[in-house]
Amino acid sequence: MPSATDIRLILSTAGTREEAERIARALVEEGLAACVNLVPGLTSVYRWQGAIETANEILLIIKTTVSQVERVEALLRTLHSYEVPEFLVLHPESVSQPYLTWLLSSVR
């Protein structure tokens, strides 16, 4: 029986809404993600090349399966403008069965 161990949430960020939407659409169209949430209004403070930087970004929350994580990362790297795009994979502890069924049926 499918369970939460079959899915992953991936966090990434993009510098513009247009880039975030382009990445999200490609992931869903390719069947690599069931859904990508775009969360605007994010301010990131980070160290880059020895300096403290601040940037306005869009957070992408990517819902996918364990089997597609590597392909999601490859496509993200291809489409992303950042030299080092954020790619954090989270392991959900639990998920409702109806949502899990939909997610698994939406990812190739």
Tell me what the structure shows.
31% of the residues lie in helices and 37% in strands. It is of the alpha+beta class and 108 residues long. Helix 1 (17-29) packs antiparallel against helix 2 (69-79). The protein is elongated and about 50 Å long.
How are the SSEs placed, and which strands pair?
Blueprint: E1 7-14, H1 17-29, E2 35-48, E3 51-65, H2 69-79, E4 88-90, H3 97-106
Antiparallel strand pairs: 1-3, 1-4, 2-3
Helix pairs in contact: 1-2
In terms of DSSP E residues, the strand content is 35-45%
The class by helix and strand makeup works out as alpha+beta
CATH class: Alpha Beta
Shape: elongated
Please name the CATH architecture: 2-Layer Sandwich
Descriptive terms for the model:
3 helices; alpha+beta; about 110 residues; 4 strands; single chain; 4-stranded antiparallel beta sheet; elongated; Alpha-Beta Plaits
How do you describe this structure in short?
By secondary structure, the protein is of the alpha+beta class. It is built from three helices and four strands. The chain is elongated and about 50 Å long.
